[in-house]
Structures are given as C-alpha cells and as structure tokens.
Write a structure and sequence with these properties.
It contains 25 helices and 7 strands. With 537 residues, it is mainly alpha-helical.
Length: 537
C-alpha cells in the first residue's frame, strides 16, 4: 500500500472510530432492555461463570425468553471487567466491531476487485454508513456477528488467493464463521448456504486434500449442532416468530377469503386459499420488500427502536451508486458479481421467514454487500468522468457535495436530534427510576409493567449480585409467545397493575400509566412525562 493510500485509510479508520465512540454512553440516551440484559449477562459471567438464570457457560441464553445467543455477552466480559458495568462498557464491543468492519471490508474489497481505489471506497462508505453507525453505537448482536462473518469471509478469500493454500487460514475462516453463528440467529441460516456457494464457485481452483476435507467435515458437524441448538433451546420462540404461525397472515390470506359471501368453487378454494400457499405468498412479499426503496432509502424497518424513522438504512445518494455499481459489474463482467449476487439473494431469507420481516437488524447482513456494490459504482462512475474537462469536474463536484449533504443530514439527525425525537422507544426513564429508588434505600419499590422488563434496569444499574438475584427472583408463567417476565426479587415488585389501596408504608411506586402529577414525574428530554411516581410514607 502506497503512503498516500495508508494515510487515507488511517484517516477513514479514525473517522469511523470517532463516529462510533463519540458520546457512546450518552447517545442513545438510554439502554434498551436488550442492551441491559446483554451487559448484565456479561457481568454475571464475569462473577459467576453463569447467566442470570444460573446456567453455566451456556450456548443459548434464556434471557427474557427470547432465546438470545451468547456470543456478544461472552465478548463483553473483558470490557465489563476493565471498565465496570455501565453503558460504555456494554456498547463498546459493538462500537469496536464497527471499526474493525471498516478494516475488513477494505481487505475484502481488495480481494474481490484487486483495486485499492475500490477498497478505499468500500472502507469510506462502511465508515459513513447510517446503517452501520446506528447499529454500532448500541449493543446489537447482529453488528458483532456481521464483523465476525466478514472476518470469516476475509480468511476464506485469503485461503482461496493463497498460492500455498494454507490450512491455518481456512481454519481461521471457519472459526469466525462459527463465532458469527453463535452470536446472531440469522447467520445460522445464512452462513452454511453462502459458504456452500463459495465452494461451488471456487471449486476449480480449490484443491480439496485430506486436511481441508477434515476441516470441512468439522464445520458441517458444527452447523448441524447449531441447527439442533436453535430448534431445541429456542423452539417455542422460533415457532412464535415464524411467519407460518402469524394469525394476521392466516386471516388475511386464507380465512378472510374463505369466509366471505362471494361465489366459491370448492376445488379452487382449497387450492388457492390454504395455509401453505397463502403464507408462502406472504413470504415472497416479505422477500421482495427487502429491496423496496421505502426500507432502504426512506424509513427503514418496522421496529421503531432500530431506525431513525425519517431516514432509511442507506443514503438516498446510495441509490445512484448501486445503479452504477450493478451496471459496471455486469458491463465489465466482474467475477465478484457471483459472490455479491448470491450474498444479496440469500441474505433476505432469514428475515422473510419471520413475522416482522422488514427488520433492520435481521437484514443488516446485507449491508456489507451493498457497500461493495456502491464502492464499485463509485469507481465505475469516476472512470466515466476521468477525462479532465470542465463538465466532468463540475459533475464530480456536484456528486461529492450531494453525498456529503446526505451524510451531514444523517449525522445531524442522529447526534443532535435522536435523544429528543427517538429515545422514547429506548425505555428512557428506567435508569432515572433506578436512581430515584436509590434515594429511598429503606423503601420497597413497586413498578408497573413486567412486559417492559424493568427488572433488568435495577439489576444493571445497581450491579445486583447475580447469586442473590437467582435466590430471590419470582417469575410470571411463560406467555404464549415464550416471554418470561419477572414478578419480583428482593424489595422490588413488578405487577401488571398497581393496587394503590393495598400499598404498604414506605413504598415507592412507579407507574407509566399515571402521568397526571407533574411534580412527581420523570420526563423525556423533549419535556414529555414518561413515568409517574408516588412515595407512600
């Protein structure tokens, strides 16, 4: 790498680091329940070697009953040990993963295109990606898993391009692929099929000897184990998330059409309006909607916590780069088109199989592929404007200005307005509720809303002893969707509705449904009350 490329690359890494670490403990202004449980699980691992439920070194976390994978919490042990249990230490592994992703996408871009300019474009677009910045600044398992996947892909490509075909490189590749599969569920479905296609495309150049074959067999055994783990430990959750159990889909696609008063043909009705064909049609819609402009460039996914709301997962300018990228790839018949197309075609499948299919976290595995296409699009567009004439300089200047206007608009929306506009969806006020309770150490605490998982905030911010929690905790029955809500532990109780007439003396009650007392309320940064509280003396 020439000195000018090194300087540019280092500047990109510094930029990526700043955008992911700056005020990391303040923006977002509140930990989500998932972040808090990941951080507390790391804390529990550190102190006891087991999760909050007492399972020693588990390969699957019961958590809230949502069947999380343990990779992120294991990797969070060291930051928690060094920095203590807080927002920064919980989010730092994700932020670091985002920076490492910039380095890996450079290497992958260079491997598949063999051009340093495209590799630099890849790292720059990854560093400035709104999708990456957003998910890197919170404890998102998918962000960590994506970096692990990129590391696996990097070593796989290095093995392929290595003249000596070093087996250690292939081992490193499969280790990182396995770690990604232990960190986020989508990769359990995506990686095996993707790697199979990689072997298929590279079969002529890749000689499979005994050692390589042995490593492949070991990888296959791990895949089978991962599928068994997914469908045994989290089978209830998998079934509730599956599109085939979505009652709304079944009603709209099957029952509604069967039950209306229109003229019917029994044979046609049985053929068209059945569970399997109706839901499969919806699955196809979910898949196609992944590439919709609304999801990519306008509003993002359906979960309010995973998006800015007024901003897509990609910049509007990226649409031009994607068009130019695909045009250039097919026009120049680049070999990389095979890998990128398979990546983009397989990526939506795990999300399409679920009920809330347009999910920005489950579809994040597509982001690096989009980045590589955009990087080639920038290179192709630049090559078309390579002649040093006035009109080309004007066009390039306008395009650069438009791109950085997109970037500036996103950074302003995120760093200036996020905590006012969007932090309400991150359970803002729960940390303040814990701080309020600490002012009354001799009081019992009653907080409404077990479905909002308030207990995890008390465990997290009070650094509650995991062994003590396991002895004291009482749970509600598991819900039909597989969720496990905490009823009480120690002096803390979490009822579905607070009976104020039955509260004992020296009780602090916190209620998100009673916001009429302005003096006894916890407020959002926007000035709206979010939690009401009463002190019963």
């Amino acid at each position: 790498m020439k000195s000018k490329y090194i300087i540019i690359f280092l500047c990109i890494i510094l930029l990526a680091s700043f955008l992911r670490v700056f005020k990391l403990n303040e923006i977002p202004g509140s930990l989500s329940p998932d972040e808090a449980v990941l951080g507390y699980t790391s804390y529990s691992f550190l102190l006891t070697g087991a999760d909050e439920h007492g399972k020693l070194l588990p390969l699957a976390l019961q958590s809230f009953g949502d069947g999380k994978l343990p990779g992120y919490s294991y990797m969070g042990i060291l930051p928690v040990a060094l920095l203590g249990l807080n927002e920064f230490s919980t989010r730092f592994p994700s932020a670091l993963a985002g920076v490492i992703g910039v380095v890996l996408i450079y290497q992958i871009g260079f491997f598949i295109f063999n051009k340093k300019s495209i590799a630099l474009f890849s790292s720059l677009f990854f560093a400035l990606s709104p999708w990456s910045i957003y998910l890197s600044r919170a404890a998102y398992e998918v962000n960590m898993a994506t970096t692990l996947f990129l590391a696996g892909l990097f070593f796989f490509l290095k093995f392929y391009h290595s003249g000596q075909k070093r087996v250690k490189t292939l081992i490193a590749s499969f280790v990182f692929f396995c770690l990604a599969m232990l960190t986020y569920h989508s990769y359990i479905l995506f990686i095996p099929i993707f790697v199979l296609f990689l072997f298929f495309f590279m079969r002529k150049e890749m000689r499979i000897n005994f050692r390589v074959g042995f490593i492949i067999i070991f990888f296959i055994i791990f895949i089978i184990t991962s599928y068994a783990m997914l469908f045994s430990s989290g089978k209830d959750k998998v079934s509730t998330l599956s599109i085939y159990s979505d009652k709304n889909v079944l009603y709209n696609r099957v029952e509604k059409l069967r039950g209306d008063s229109s003229l019917k043909n029994d044979i046609l009705e049985k053929f068209l309006h059945n569970k399997y064909l109706g839901v499969t049609y919806q699955l196809g819609q979910n898949y196609i909607n992944t590439f919709s402009p609304e999801f990519l460039f306008d509003k993002g996914g359906e979960k309010l916590q995973h998006n800015l709301g007024n901003f897509g997962n990609l910049y509007l300018f990226d649409a031009l780069l994607l068009i130019m990228g695909f045009a250039g790839l097919f026009y120049n018949r680049e070999n990389a088109i095979k890998i990128l197309c398979i990546w983009l075609l397989l990526g939506p499948i795990p999300s399409a199989l679920t009920r809330d299919s347009l999910n920005s976290t489950r579809l994040f595995l597509l982001m690096p592929a989009f980045i590589l296409v955009e990087a080639y699009g920038a290179y192709f567009l630049y090559s078309l404007l390579e002649r040093k004439v006035l009109i080309n300089w004007i066009i390039k200047s306008v395009l650069i200005l438009l791109f950085f206007l997109n970037v500036g608009f996103f950074l302003d929306s995120y760093f200036m307005h996020f905590n006012t506009q969007r932090v309400r969806f991150w359970h803002y006020g729960y940390k303040q509720a814990v701080e309020l309770s600490e002012k009354y150490p001799a009081y019992d605490v009653v907080m409404r809303g077990p479905e909002n998982f308030p207990y995890i905030y008390f465990l997290f911010y009070m650094r509650y002893d995991p062994l003590k929690f396991r002895k004291e905790v009482s749970y509600y029955p598991v819900t039909s969707e597989g969720f496990l809500y905490v009823k009480s532990f120690g002096k803390y109780t979490f009822p579905e509705k607070i009976s104020y007439s039955e509260l004992g003396p020296k009780t602090l009650s916190i209620d998100d449904t009673r916001l009429d007392d302005k003096k006894n309320s916890i407020y959002l940064p926007s000035g709206e009350p979010v939690l009401g509280y009463w002190i019963n003396n």
